[in-house]
Amino acid sequence: MTFEHYLALFIAMFLVAVIPGPAVFAITSASVASGYKRGISMTLGLLLADYVFILLAISGLAVVAEVLGSAFVIIKYLCAAYLIWMGISLLLSKPDTTPTDTATHSTHSAILSGFLLTLSNPKAIVFYVALFPTFVAIESMTYVDILGIMVCATLAFGSVNLGYVYLGGQARKLISTPRRLTLLNRCAGSVLAASGVTVAMR
User: Fold this and answer.
1) Where does the record place it (predicted)?
2) pTM recorded for the entire structure
3) In terms of Cα–Cα distance, which of 30, 28, 180, 61 is closest to 131?
């Protein structure tokens, strides 16, 4: 792949990432409710799923998606249920003005939720099945090309998602009283639950 190929792929990935969807709403709400660390952990999970999609696309994602169609449906509903559960947890949570990482909001659970979000995201599936092959010559991929594609994904998707994490974290910093934080948690919980419903209905 040439520099022009990488640049075109990066721009396409960046534009796809900027478009708000369940993943964007989830990581922003998680950052608002629990601080930067949880949002960053969810972003890591999102990227790990993108790496899986890249490897599947190179080995024939369309075939894999057809064979594992039921598995993708199960993942979608698991992700939806997890988002709804997180939303309800926030709605019922007591205000805490300092970000914490409890068992409920552990790093591992944040990474897993981010991973499942991307795997169940129709936008990601459409991109890697329909658009991805137009930017890369899959039949002549080398290990260097694969590494370069993953770097593009990291820079494009990672930078955009971390930007949303930063905005969510900054919003949390502006909320210094328990009353305001309670309202913020309810808003974030509602967004997460709504994102879960959206994922389930797609």
Assistant:
1) Cell membrane
2) 0.69
3) 61
Query: What tokens does 157 get?
Result: 């998707």
Tell me the pLDDT tens digit for each residue of 175-195. Answer: 655 666 666 666 766 766 776
HEC secondary structure over the chain: CCHHHHHHHHHHHHHHHHCCCHHHHHHHHHHHHHCHHHHHHHHHHHHHHHHHHHHHHHHCHHHHHHHCHHHHHHHHHHHHHHHHHHHHHHHHCCCCCCCCCCCCCCHHHHHHHHHHHHHCCHHHHHHHHHHHHHHCCHHHCCHHHHHHHHHHHHHHHHHHHHHHHHHHHHHHHHCCCHHHHHHHHHHHHHHHHHHHHHHHHC
